[in-house]
Amino acid sequence: MNLSHDDGPREAASVDFGHLVHRRPSAVARPRSAIEVAEVVRAAAADGIPVAARGRGHSGYGQAQTDGIVLDLSALAEVHEVRDDRVVVDAGTGWRAVLDAAWRHGSAPPVLTDYLGLSVGGTLSAGGIGGTSFRYGLQTDTVTELEVVTGDGVVRTCGPGDELFAAVLGGLGQCGIITRATLRLTGVPERVRRHEIDHDTVVSAAAEQLRFVEDGRYDFVQGQVRYGESGRRIFLETATYYTPPAAPRDDGEDLPFPEFQHRLDAAEALLTQTGAWFHPHPWWNCFLPASTATEFLESLVGQLRADDLGPAGCVLFYPVFTARVHTPLVRLPPEPVAYLVALLRFPPDDTAVAERQVADNVRLYREARDLGGLTYPIGAIPFTASDWRHHFGARWPRLRTWKEHYDPAHILTPGPGIFTAPGSGTPRTTDD
Ligand SMILES: Cc1cc2nc3c(=O)[nH]c(=O)nc-3n(C[C@H](O)[C@H](O)[C@H](O)COP(=O)(O)OP(=O)(O)OC[C@H]3O[C@@H](n4cnc5c(N)ncnc54)[C@H](O)[C@@H]3O)c2cc1C
């Protein structure tokens, strides 16, 4: 397997969606098979060189970066097999391609992220949440088999009940690099009836949202706070999936199912054109327990000004039933319902503003944590070693044991800074 030391690929691998952290790898590999991934990992482990997989690079804070070797998985992106109830895909495949292949077969993944330009391996290493998660859990809960290259450079296959399966799903790349996944599919509706329901306060919006997910009247439920020219707007976004001649009785925007799933494509095109897609994005994501989520949301929305989000930004919030999430390393508050709260910030291209917002993210994380919140670790909240120990809580000893077992040289995925200093192979033992 050839490693590229050229400036172009190394520069590309030192940038992510967050545009906040830039680490140049010493080399980039572009494997086309699990065997090629294993070759690189084995050689790197022998020399103690850190390795990070890069799916689509939509991390917020260098999670897929390293000063060692980046494995660019963009060429490991084949859809191998589609059946009514499952699809087998390489880990570098984008969710757009997964949906397209499944749709042609009359099926769809039960949970899709709002934006489909993410890789399967990238979302499975974090969780993968969407507006149907209240019903189906996270994307990690829809996986039935994985092929993984562990930190010793061995290709292994695992499934539900296997330790490696639990160590890798939602495992932030610490114990293995996913090379292939079998994902559950469901039948699909032809059409979607989409609604936006305005509220005066986030408290009433969150309360109605909870009623909606409890009575199951909608198939998709989210909530947003946005700041536009006419001021602040708080609304729920809901959708009913259906196939004619059946039809929902209520009014709303009516669109084909794939068009609904591709709903962020136009925004991406616009923000790419204006350049805002390439500005810093100090995003913040946490799960709050239902008992404190509205208190947190109310305080958050009370503090926020339009500039904190930018015209393209929003606060996203929606509930999930924690019992539907079966992925041990995805950390959720221990209550029956948890709310995802996300600040999707699109500030101007200004380093000082971005740095201020990252610092504000840490403050907000501490506030959320005091209220029983846990981060969804995809955004830009710099974590200390003790933050990680707190994050994994009772699961920390298990993760540490798995790390020793599957990645004894501690080379895999240093970006989040869980076992080594962020991005490097230096052990992280102190509370730096
Ligand atoms: C515009 C936008 C919208 C988003 N919407 C949602 C959403 O609706 N729901 C949601 O849950 N998330 C959402 N996210 C967050 C996103 O799911 C995560 O950041 C995800 O990790 C990005 O996937 P990626 O392929 O770009 O991963 P990368 O940034 O390339 O990698 C992310 C992390 O996963 C590791 N990794 C990548 N591939 C593998 C692999 N094959 N095996 C093991 N580890 C691997 C990397 O090393 C890194 O640590 C969104 C992000 C953006 C920018």
TrEMBL record:
Keywords: FAD, Flavoprotein, Oxidoreductase. GO terms for biological process: cytokinin metabolic process. Its cofactor is FAD. One of its GO terms (molecular function) is cytokinin dehydrogenase activity. Residues 21-188 form the FAD-binding PCMH-type domain. InterPro entries: Cytok_DH_C_sf (IPR016170), Cytokinin_DH_FAD/cytokin-bd (IPR015345), FAD-bd_PCMH (IPR016166), FAD-bd_PCMH-like_sf (IPR036318), FAD-bd_PCMH_sub1 (IPR016167), FAD-bd_PCMH_sub2 (IPR016169), FAD-linked_Oxase-like_C (IPR016164), FAD-linked_Oxidoreductases_BP (IPR050432). Pfam families: Cytokin-bind, FAD_binding_4. Belongs to the oxygen-dependent FAD-linked oxidoreductase family. This is FAD/FMN-containing dehydrogenase. It comes from Amycolatopsis endophytica.
